[in-house]
Amino acid sequence: MMLEIIRQIPIDYYVWLSTVLFVIGVFGVLIRRNAIVVLMCVELMLNAVNLLLAAFSTYLGDAQGQIMVFFIMVVAAAEAAVGLGILVMIYRNTKSTDISLLDKLRN
Question: Who's near 49: CB < 8 A, 6+ residues apart?
């Protein structure tokens, strides 16, 4: 029943939504200076790819895309944990989450 409801929505809508989410993530990474916002934008890009993989997997009736989504989610969780750990250490050293101050850590 749910599969039929999902297939009633054209695949183009999923492609456009995923593209918009990915572009918002790219602009967030390129424009913003706060490290927390940059990490959230990277997560947004990963979720845009996950949405597209899950949509194509559902439309094609193949579970390989959904399995790939699971592994991407595992990598995203690990990336968030490592990224937040690094961010805590940066904040302890610089008292800021501004990524433009990271060149001070070279010394």
Answer: 18, 22, 72
DSSP, residue by residue, the chain: -HHHHHHHS-HHHHHHHHHHHHHHHHHHHHH--BHHHHHHHHHHHHHHHHHHHHHHHHHHT-THHHHHHHHHHHHHHHHHHHHHHHHHHHHHHHS--BGGGGGGGG-
pLDDT tens digits for range 15-43: 999 999 999 999 999 998 888 888 899 99
Which candidate, 49, 43, 41, 46, places its Cα nearest to that of 24?
41
pLDDT digits (tens, 9 = 90+) for 47-65: 999 999 999 998 888 888 8
Map out the domains of the chain as residue ranges: 33-97
pTM to 2 decimals? 0.80
The CATH architecture of the domain made up of 33-97 is: Orthogonal Bundle (1.10)
Distance CA 40, CA 72 (A): 15
